[in-house]
């Protein structure tokens, strides 16, 4: 079948990674880290007095950052169907009810009835709007006046900024200094106060929690706050209304907030429906949490599915998911790239890596039990960087066997004769040569 061929191409593509490729990649990463370090030294201001507290002997000790009371790993909160129902009523006039359409082409290709829940059509381009809207609407009057804060370089920042503007609530977003300029600009265009701090999201969150202590902002975790989980669960309710006889719902997983909300909605109303989790193998935080029986730090590598690159799942999400997930699978980068390509070509949909992993699991044969079934997967977002998109399309074409890379040895002769003698065949073929 086509799916088996695609799976074989993915495996073959993975085997082509040579020692020289790894060596070149290591050297390149060393150079990038050096450049990043030099840049950080220039743009990072010296610590202010508020960044440290004086000890009794005149030395300095780091300040004790507050914890997020809504996301206490020692006392996780399980959301209920009532929470999801309340969220659905609350946000119904504030976010889009996105379509859930059948894909004729991919249904035929994969031998199933495949439907896409198109969350990338939300105003800011992702499902994150649902949870953000609900969490903001639930604030007390005093919290709304003081404002909220979050550490995010992606879709949560955009969603919080947009709906903060809609509801008249001040929003502060702490982003790493290397956050995409487009997303920084978009958040500011929605009226958010964007603060660039640190070289990763962990450092950004530390600074956000410091501001919570100083300014008394309300911190809203983008994937584990109970209201965020409830808001995301409204997708599950809409799926059951739009495709009432669905057999399985395939959900991308990063911090696990999305699947937690959806699973509560789906399993409460129709327990027989399968809920399947799909992770990128570059950031298997849910897999590691299942092994350990609790949220643990997982190794995260650079990935096309950057929206899923969360090193540790949320405690509330993991507790909520207990007994609700029927299966979980991991997918590789090559299958994600191939899925993005398929969606562009067959659905005319531009989707980010995190939104394509559900389709990737089906394309590469990870879910054979779904053949002949009615299946919904969520296209969670469409905020893929344009430079990344170009490289991803080429990568998908290579995995699909439609783009090749050749190395040729040519004699050292004058250019005109060389082109005439060695490359005269190019005009009669569809091959483009890259000289390395």
TrEMBL record:
Q: What spans are recorded as compositionally biased (Basic and acidic residues)?
A: 17-41
| GO terms, biological process | isoleucine biosynthetic process; L-serine catabolic process; L-threonine catabolic process
* Domain of life (superkingdom): Eukaryota
Q: Where is the composition biased (Basic residues)?
A: 1-16
Which cofactors are reported in the record for this sequence?
pyridoxal 5'-phosphate
Q: Which organism is it from?
A: Ancylostoma ceylanicum
Ranges for the region named Disordered are 1-72
* Protein name as annotated: L-serine deaminase
What residues does the Tryptophan synthase beta chain-like PALP domain cover? 92-381
Q: Which family does it belong to?
A: Belongs to the serine/threonine dehydratase family.
């Amino acid at each position: 079948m086509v799916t088996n061929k695609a799976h074989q191409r993915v495996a073959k593509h993975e085997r082509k990674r040579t020692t020289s490729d790894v060596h070149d990649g290591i050297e390149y990463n060393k150079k990038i880290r050096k450049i990043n370090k030099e840049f950080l030294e220039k743009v990072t201001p010296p610590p202010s007095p508020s960044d440290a507290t004086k000890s009794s002997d005149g030395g300095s000790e780091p300040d004790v950052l507050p914890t997020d009371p809504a996301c206490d790993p020692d006392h996780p909160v399980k959301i209920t169907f009532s929470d999801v129902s309340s969220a659905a009523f609350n946000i119904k006039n504030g976010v889009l009810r996105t379509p859930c359409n059948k894909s004729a082409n991919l249904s035929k290709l994969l031998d199933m009835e495949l439907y896409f829940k198109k969350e990338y059509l939300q105003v800011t381009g992702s499902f994150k709007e649902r949870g953000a809207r609900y969490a903001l609407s639930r604030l007390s009057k005093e919290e709304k006046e003081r404002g909220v804060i979050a550490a995010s370089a992606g879709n949560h920042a955009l969603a919080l900024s947009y709906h903060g503007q809609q509801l008249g609530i001040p929003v502060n977003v702490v982003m790493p200094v290397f956050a995409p300029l487009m997303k920084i600009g978009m958040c500011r265009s929605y009226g958010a106060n964007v603060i660039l701090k640190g070289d990763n999201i962990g450092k950004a969150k530390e600074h956000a929690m410091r501001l919570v202590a100083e300014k008394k902002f309300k911190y809203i975790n983008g994937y584990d706050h109970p209201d965020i989980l409830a808001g995301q669960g409204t997708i599950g309710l809409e799926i059951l209304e739009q495709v009432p006889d669905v057999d399985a719902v395939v959900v991308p997983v990063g911090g696990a907030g999305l699947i937690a909300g959806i699973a509560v909605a789906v399993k409460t109303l129709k327990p027989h429906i399968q809920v399947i989790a799909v992770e990128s193998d570059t950031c298997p935080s849910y897999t590691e949490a299942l092994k350990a029986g609790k949220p643990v730090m997982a190794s995260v590598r650079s990935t096309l599915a950057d929206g899923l690159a969360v090193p540790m799942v949320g405690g509330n999400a993991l507790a909520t998911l207990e007994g609700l997930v029927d299966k979980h699978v991991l997918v590789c980068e090559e299958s994600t790239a191939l899925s993005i390509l398929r969606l562009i070509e067959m659905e005319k949909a531009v989707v980010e890596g995190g939104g394509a992993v559900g389709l990737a699991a089906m394309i590469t044969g990870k879910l054979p039990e779904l053949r002949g079934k009615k299946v919904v997967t969520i296209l969670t977002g469409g905020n893929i960087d344009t430079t990344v998109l170009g490289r991803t399309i080429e990568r998908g074409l290579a995995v699909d066997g439609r783009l090749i890379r050749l190395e040729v040895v040519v004699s050292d002769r004058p250019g005109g004769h060389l082109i005439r003698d060695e490359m005269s065949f190019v005009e009669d073929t569809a091959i483009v040569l890259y000289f390395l």
